[in-house]
Fold:
Amino acid sequence: MATTTTKPGNAFIQELEQIRTDFRKEAPRGGMTSRSREEGAQSKRSGLRGAAFNHTFAGEQYVNCPVKDIRRKQLQKLMDEGGQVYFSGPVVSHPTLAHWEAKAYGLTDEEIYKLEREDYLPDELILRGWRVSVCRNAHFSVAIGTSYVGEGETLIRSQTEPEKVAQELDELREQFKSWGVEDLEKAMANRAVHAEADEDHGTFNQWVIREFCDTPELQEEMRQVFILRAHSRLGRHF
Structure:
């Protein structure tokens, strides 16, 4: 039954983190190097299928937000996702980063091009459509909060186990090297950029939830969205 009182912001964040912890007991994280090259390639194929939309939901979050400071931060995030290079920055678009990593797992340019133009599988279509719909129709704090499941996990891990995160990146580099991947910097760029950017984005998401999910109704909606996102994203490892 939904609560009829508003939790203080920090207490509500702690509740969401407990949900994450409980979920991870049932769906532990897989290590970056625990898969064969073909298993990794299959995961990349799943992520690339129909994925040229490049974070449509982030645009919905921007349009949906009336608070100038938050809109400015969300615009910066859109620049990060779409490619800072278009604005004289150093980071390419997230689809390009995904291409580089997929090629390290053995996919070709031709296969990537074909995958990105395929239709979503039915479950993907439902999940992605639901995400965009929430970001379009929910309160802006809930819309932006949908990103906290993924980006927030990066933030929490950077705070609680930075040595393990660094070790995983080192191990992935060594695995790519053992497969004969020539351009290790491009192969690693997707993980390296997300490790840094998602820490910043996760901090932003956490702040928005803490400060603006400030009624029992909004907190209940955020709670349910967080649970659904955890099942769809973490459980299926998208």
Remarks:
- The mean pLDDT is 90.
